[in-house]
UniProtKB/TrEMBL annotation:
Family annotation (InterPro entries): Peptidase_S1_PA, Peptidase_S1_PA_chymotrypsin
Species this protein is from: Caballeronia terrestris
Signal peptide extent: 1-24
Keywords from the UniProt entry: Signal
Superkingdom of this protein's organism: Bacteria
Protein name (Swiss-Prot/TrEMBL): Serine protease
Amino acid sequence: MTKGSSIWGFAAVCALSCSTLTRAQSIEQTVVYIECKSDKASTVKGAGVLVSPYGHVLTAKHVAPAGYVCKGVIGTGAQQPTRNLIRDPRTVNLDAVLLRFVPAPDEKFSYLRYRRLEGSNLKGAAITVSGFPPNGTGEIVTNSGTLSSLISDETGIVKTDALSASGMSGGPVILKSDGSLIGIVAGAQFDPATGSPSSYGVLSMEWFANEFGLTSVSPETAVASVPASSPKIIVKENEYGPIEFAPGESKSFPLDLGNAGAVDVFMQSIVYEGADHGAQGVFVRICSAQNNQPCDGRQIGESETFRQRLTEGPGQISIFNFKENPKIKLTFRIASPA
């Protein structure tokens, strides 16, 4: 991390040894160079990774401190980042933060889906870590190593035989076999005097992925593209949209809960028609077909999640566009929390 200077004090997480790899196209399209500046001219530099088609960028919280203005550029650190990154309102008490590029109309981003380490057999698996060394050409540097542990501590950090490799803080830690995201490089210990990391590790995705509404690659939670005409949602996870709603219009979607026990509705984007719309978000209601189960709902806005506990079996999700709202287009994800 560079904070008010040109020296980056990062450490990447590679077990045993690290070596530079040829840059893959998927890495080039998803790794983001980030610069965040305070009103006191202090600058923090780091890496991030695109984690949604709507421009969400995951990075370490110490790379994007609260109150700093952040900008980013995809795939290179050779040019000054000019595209604004806004802070997502969802937060976790970990060294992780979700930022977002504001997409142009109809713009979609390449992104990585995550894989859980807990309960897997990935110990010893080959991993890569990507970032932007300050003394390089600005090209993405990708280092390889081995995931030497699957056990995380109380901060979500997976312990490894970490070696130093500057320029990686906030960057993606990727499973080499399938390209899935298993974590980011984050602070393992922090200097109490400065608040800056003094050591680094892999912050495992399962510690915060649900809170940020991220997409898993595991077979049972694979995302499907679902048509807009009242699709059946098979929990664990589905994403669909954009779906148009006229003012005052309500639409319902049948839901098969399986054995999920709970449902999350995450509103990825709400596009309003017209500039002066006094936006209110939408009202989401989740119901179970079981007679003894409550039917609950609440108002949510863009990038917000509504969770309802339900038993297994059939159910229904209803979404209502307030009459005071203009015509809108929604894109949302429905998932069962892990």
